[in-house]
Amino acid sequence: MELTLEELNKTIMEMRAKGYLTEALKLADQGLLIALENNNYTYILDLYFQKILVHHSLGDTLSMVSLIHDYEAICQKYGSSKDLMHYHLVMSLIYDLVDIREKTVEMTKKAIVYAQELQDPIMLVRCHNNLCYLEVEKGCTTEALQAGLLAREYNRSLTESMPDLAKLHDIRINNNLADVYILEGDFKTGKALLDDSLTSDIIDHHKREKVAALFGYGFLYEKQQKLDEAVSYYKQAIELAKSYGDKPNTKKVMRLLLNVLYQLDWRDEIFELQREYIDLTEKMSVANLLQQVMNLEFKRQKEKLEKKAHYDPLTGVLNRHFLDFELQEWLNTAKLTQCYVCITVLDIDYFKLFNDMHGHLFGDMILQLLANGLEEFLQDEDVKIIRYGGDEFIICMRHQQKDYIKSLVKNTHAFLLTLKLEQEQESYPVKVSMGACINDQKNYHYKELFEQADSCLYQAKANGRASCVLYELS
Questions:
Q1: Are strands 432-438 and 468-472 parallel, antiparallel or unpaired?
Q2: Which residues contact 73 (CB under 8 A, 6 or more apart)?
Q3: What angle do CA 12, 17, 18 make, to 5 degrees?
Q4: What sign does the dihedral 56-57-62-66 (CA atoms) show?
Q5: What does pTM read for this prediction?
Q6: What is the CATH number of domain 311-472?
Q7: Is 433 exposed, middle or buried (CB count within 10 Å of its CB: 0-12, 13-18, 19+)?
Q8: Which CATH number fits domain 5-224: 3.60.20.10, 3.40.50.170, 1.25.40.10, 3.40.190.10?
Q9: Of the candidates 177, 252, 164, which has an alpha carbon nearest to the alpha carbon of residue 208?
Q10: pLDDT tens per residue across span 303-321
């Protein structure tokens, strides 16, 4: 029997928790194809998230980065708070891998805000445990201990409902808290936590976590000046990280091992490891991971600036820039593909009364309600939504079938009449007048179509408002 996307998503999560990463990746690829074919953005986003986490567990950072741009674009357009939380976690992992600490902490804390808002125990565990690790890296043991113990507390709630995942979290929390206690000089507690990690019945299925535990032992013995033992554990961690291609972790432990070898003055081993370390660094440089991440950051900032220039800051829909600079190209494409085009103009009836009676902030909320409603209702259509000014909006529609556009205009107006702003236990219905003009597959001149649509809007107002008038060119 074929799994539904919901069942598939759950199965992939369970496989990840059990360490069946290659199999989980194959299932995620299959599920993503199905979700993309059906435009099921809820599961598209979930499966992208699953794939990125699998690649992270496999140490495949390049694959993580290659997926992130598409994931971010879909997340920004269709994502819920849950997806934005996942996105910020993913970005924290990527920034961590290229040692951009400030951004790693920033993204982790943003993910925590979403996790607290959604009361998502899995993410609260993961994010607080990540924060524990980051505070350890900064040497802030008090803050690290607080974050690690919070992660432990949240993880208790998962023990019965998701035992495999809770076990995996326990290993990760043990590894990070062990580092805290070792830094504080409490070697007994640190070793006990690492012992728990390496004796877990699932540790052999989770190589990345086992590398962290072996590294923890190396760190423990280094701090105790038992340098021979530290070398042994650092070498085990390196060999295991190499076995599944985890270059960032391999490089990190090599750097620590070199420090111990210098203290021991083992010159032959220093020379050999240095050569291997330089070779690995060059290979990672060829892959140019840091540059890719920085390019990603540059592109993100550029897109933010472009969005600021092209989108209305209050409502999030397009502003007049689209009409002035991009609409003609949009119309030319419609002409080439012989689509019908409809220009629709609408505004809110008696909008000034909302502002006069309830204030301009209330009026702003009405505008946001209308814009969000339009975006949600028309998300699968070939349309552009523009705030023209004040409470007036323009919708540019195109489609191969004229009757389809006519129905879409009427259905959009009917939907808008269902909108209500709920405020302080009061309900305020929104009434909208609409005028529309559909072209004849010949006239693709915006000015003429707009003037006719605007005339229809005035007719709708004259008809008693809360109505829609549609004109068809022939």
A1: parallel
A2: none
A3: 95
A4: negative
A5: 0.62
A6: 3.30.70.270
A7: buried
A8: 1.25.40.10
A9: 252
A10: 655 556 688 889 989 998 8
